[in-house]
User: Fold this.
Amino acid sequence: MPQFAYYGRNANREPVEGRIEAASVANVVDTLTQTGITPVSITEVPQVQQASEVISRLMGSDKVSALELMMFTRQFYTLTKAGVPIIRALRSLEVSTQQKALSKLYAELAQALESGVELSQAMSRREDVFDPFYIAMVRIGESAGRMEEVFLGLFEHLEFQKYIKEQVKSALRYPTFVVLAMVVAIAIINIFVIPAFAKVFESLHAELPLMTRILMATSQFTLKWWPAMVVGCVVAWLGWKQYLKTTLGRLRWDRTKLRMPIVGDMVEKGVLAQGMRSLALVFRSGVPVVQGLTLSAQVIDNAHIAQALVVMRSQVERGDSLLTASQRSGVFPPLVLQMIMVGEESGTLGEMLEEIGQMYQRDMEYGLKSLAQKIEPILLVLMGAMVLVLALGVFLPMWDLGKAAIK
Assistant:
C-alpha cells in the first residue's frame, strides 16, 4: 500500500506532519479528518524513497539493538504507569534520546499515532524491531486496557532473553577459543611444519612409518587443494544455513539439539524456561489459552517445541484441557504436568508457569556454569590425540634414523 506524507493542523491549530498508509489521497483526507487534523498538503512518497528506507534499515543504519528495545519497553512501562499521554511522551523522548536509531523510532511511532493509527499497528510497520509476539502483546494490552502490565511483562521477557544469550556466550567462550586454537595449529602444521620435515625424510631415502606417510599425504593434499577446501567449506556453510531456513530443516535440527549429549539437556531447559515464562506472561495478561499457545509458539526458539504448542492449541480448541493436551504432546516432564494441573485447578496457571520457568532458568544457569568442566576433558583428549599423532609422525622416524646412525 502506498505511503503519503501529510502536513496539517490539529484542533489547537498546531502544525502536524507525518506519514500514513492509504489506498488514495481521499482515504488519507478521511483518516486525518476523523482524528481532528485538517490537512494542508498531501504528497505520495515515491516508491524509490520507500525502498531506500527499507534498505537503510537492513544495512543497519536505523537498526535498534536489543538493549535499546529493552530501554524503549521500560520507558513505555514507566510512561503508561504515570498516565502520560503517549504522543507527548514520544515527542519528548525523540528530542532527549541520544541514540539516533531510537530517536527515529520514536518519531515514526509518534507520527503514526498522530495520524490515527493504533500503537500496535504502528509497531507492525517496523518488523525489524518488533517481533510478532511483541506486537500481539501490545495489541492485547490495547484491547484489554492493561498496557502497563503488558509492557512490564515484555520488559522482563526481553531481559530474560538477553540474560540467557549472555550466559550461553560466556559458557562457550573457552571451548570456542580452544577449538579455534586447535584448528589454527593443525593448519600451521600442515602448511609449514610437515613440508619442512618431508624434505629431510625424502633426502634420506629411508622407509617411513605409516603415521608419517599419512601426515605427509595429508599435508600434500592440503597444500594442493586448499582453495577447493575453502570454497567447499563456504558452500557447505551457506547450504547448511539455507537448509535451516526450510521448515523441515529447522524442525530436524531443533529436534537434534534436544538429543545432543552434554548440551542437549541445557538446551531443553532453556527452551522450556523461555516457553513457560512466555505462557505465564500471556496468561497473566488475560489472554485465552488458545491465543496464548499461539503467541508462545511464535516466540519459542525451537521449532520442535513450537510445533508441539501448535498441536496443543488445536487440541484445546477441540475441547481438551491444557493438562490433557500437554500430556499428549510428550515434550513436558512430569513435574511440569503436575504444576499445570495445580494451576488449572487453583486458577493460578500464570503463577505456576512462571515458577516453572524460573526453576528451569536456575537449572540451566547451573548447567551453563558447569559446561566448561564437562567439555574440558573432551578437549584435553583431543589435544592429547593431536600431540600424539604429531609425535608419532614426526619424531618417530627421526628416532629410527638416529638409532640407525648409532649402529
